[in-house]
Amino acid sequence: MRNKWVSGLLGVLAALLIGAFIMLLQGFNPLDVYAALFQFSLGGLSPLATTAKNAVPLVLTGLSASIAFASGPVNLGQPGQFLMGALFATVGGLYIHLPPVLEVAVLVLLAMLGGALWAGLAALLRMLFNMSEFIVTLMLNMIADFFTAWAIAGPFMDKSAYSPMTPQIDPAGWLPSIGNFNTTILFMIAAVGVCWFVFNRWKAGYEWRLSGQNSLFARLGGCNIDRNFVSVMLFTGALAGLAGGLLVMAGPHRFLKGLGANYAWDGVMIAIVANNGLIATLLYGFFFSAIQTGALGMELITAVPSEISQVLQAVLVLVIVASREALNVILDRREARRRAKERAA
Amino acid sequence: MRLLVGLINGMIAGATPILLAALGGAFTYYAGIFNIAMEGMMLAGAFGAVVGSYFLHSWVLGIVLSIAFALVLALIFILFSVVLHTDEFVTGIALNLFAVGATTYLMRQTFNVKGVFANEGIIPIPRLDIPLIEQIPFLGEVLSGQNLMVYIAVIAVIAVNFLIFRTRFGMRLRAAGYNAACLDSSGVSTARMRTAALLLCAVLCGLAGAFLSLGYVTLFAENMSAGRGWISLAAIILVSGNPTGIAVISLLFGFSDGLGLLLQDYRVPSQFTSMVPYVATLIALYFYSVKERKRKA
User: Fold this and answer.
1) 3-state secondary structure of A308
2) Residue A134 falls within a domain, yes or no?
3) 98-137 in A: which are within 8 Å (CB) of B?
């Protein structure tokens, strides 16, 4: 447990140093850049609220990837499931008109349904034809991308807009803000809680974890591997879909062109950095959101383009993972040496 | 006839980047590396090609720089997965992200534009007219006048085939994937073979990228590889890495690409025609799975 914290913090520090080095090469003062970056993401209540709001899609897609990877299925389809969830919620918001609380509940369920259906398609192909979900989900991402692009430029397009987008959804489905904080954050916290409970306290979650660690052992122990596979795909698809739906309901209240582009691979990235841990996913999701949110503000007062955040993120992923593995190797060696010494004594 | 020529030329243009990247991936496939960084290498190559062609006023230097950019990614891959033993899947995904981030950032930084950089100063890779053959009706229109990179891709298929199956280097490469411990104990370093495979892969992915930004179109756009690296990975898996098989599969994907363009003339929305290659990949995967199941049964 302690190792996780040590390697995580070491990795973050090392990555920030490498990022500073890249900025120095480009002729920027890294201290100024970092100060601006974290000023605009963590310095004060209002930036903090924006960071938390932006963390919602990151954490939810991250949870989706974490749970999938920890349970076996290589679900790389978060971008597609995210888009389908967003589309389902948007279309629901356009045609279903209910009182506020009910409307929100219906739209959230629709978003989860959209994501789950798209993930379920991959699960179905796996069950029926044994097609690897790894490539299938990747291809479905592309297909969802074009499909939603068609939907918002064709049947659901706002005729008065200049670029492809849908009209705004029913205001009853808008998620309100309490002070600076948007209520999507509550959904995120609830989702983390539910995921943790299901994954760590429920029989289903126990079977998922078992299948993820040793599929053969799980099968011999009486788990229904196929059923678990499908349920994990549906569950993680619903999480990614929820992320898409919440984004629409909190932010632009409509499906804009390029809505999911910023979150495309972030879920998988965060799951990898967090080593599929649920709490770690929440923390890293928040941290990555801080970088993304801060970069936009930083661009205003420094000459550094906000795209540096993408470079920084990739460096973070590589360095955190590498330092974790390197630390494991060092600890294993030390352990081996200690045992050898004990045996010799 | 015109339609057919257009379809075939569209097929060739669509197949070339996938073919080149997949041939690169074949090296790593045989060397036993789960390499999913083709997408990023291709993107880095495409960016390098535009930088070289625009600033150095030469498509040759553009190609050189595209290979150099792809090699940088390969070196990072080698550092992390071969030297530090991080997970290959994780390294690959991080590298793909890095390629998207770095090229977007550098495009903004060097050209001061967002989204797309198109300029008349970018010199494309020329088309090659082959004397005599270009006189032949129909065949001349297909065999001659293609982009130089298309001919390089054809040569690459033969060269990769020869290198992997007919040379000592190729045998050791396959041994690295087949039984690494055995290769190591016979005095050949597996790590070195994998390094070589990754470098070769980067060279070919760089060429694929150069074709994208200096041949297929003459511009650089954010994330312009658009999943072609993933399709090439699918192609490799579908034929278990065989270079000739990769060529056939790439042509099939290229055909679906050309078909998509053709369908646009029949009032099919462009978003659906753009889906065709990805749907084709799913269909190919279906036939592969059915075949696998029969083989096992």
Assistant:
1) helix
2) yes
3) 125, 129-132, 135-136
Is A56 within 8 Å of chain B by CB? no
Considering Cα of B81, then B86, then B92, then B94, what sign does the dihedral take? negative
- Count the neighbouring beta carbons within 10 Å of the beta carbon of residue B141: 18
Going residue by residue through chain A, which has 345 residues, state the pLDDT in tens, using 9 for 90 and above.
Answer: 566 777 788 888 888 898 888 888 888 888 888 888 888 888 888 889 889 988 999 999 999 999 999 998 889 899 999 999 999 999 999 998 888 889 899 999 999 999 999 999 999 999 998 888 888 998 899 899 889 988 888 888 887 777 788 888 888 888 888 877 888 899 999 999 999 999 989 888 888 888 888 888 888 888 888 889 999 999 999 999 999 999 999 878 888 887 776 666 788 889 988 888 899 999 999 999 999 888 888 888 887 888 888 888 888 888 888 888 777 778 888 888 999 888 887
Q: What residues make up the domain containing A231?
A: 55-260
Task: Tell me, yes or no, whether A294 lies in a domain.
Answer: no
**Residue closest to A237 by CA, chosen among A130, A123, A131, A152:** A123
Closest-approach residue (CA) in chain B for A19? B102
CB interface of A with B, residues 212-251, below 8 Å: none
Distance from CA of B7 to the nearest CA of A (A): 22
- B97 and chain A in contact, CB less than 8 A: yes
The ipTM, to two decimals, is: 0.84
Domain count, chain A: 1
Q: How many CA atoms lie within 13 A of B75 on its CB side?
A: 7
Between residues 108 and 167 of chain B, which touch chain A (CB distance below 8 Å)?
Answer: 108-109
User: Does residue A195 fall inside a structural domain?
Assistant: yes
Enumerate the residues of chain A whose CB falls inside 8 A of the CB of residue B279: 139, 143
B145: left (phi over 0), alpha (psi -120 to 50) or beta: left
Chains A & B: contacts with CB separation below 8 Å: 118
CA distance A191 to A204: 17
- Residue whose token pair is 């044994």: A130
